[in-house]
User: Fold this.
Amino acid sequence: MLETQKDFRKVQRLPFCYLCGDSFLEDDITDGDHVPPKAAFNPRDREPAFKLETHKKCNASFSVDDKKVGQLIEP
Assistant:
């Protein structure tokens, strides 16, 4: 469970992409993904907001799905 800032910092420095589970290699292009996805949740439901490191290609592959879900649940 993530309760303190220390807990959040530990998770933000994972040595692998949280989307695919593969370790980061030296030449990987990385990106940060909002957790939960910005498009899928109202801002008040995303607190505390944070980003986890991902492979750029993994993060991009979920972008359209996040937007679709966001359209379904927006008030």
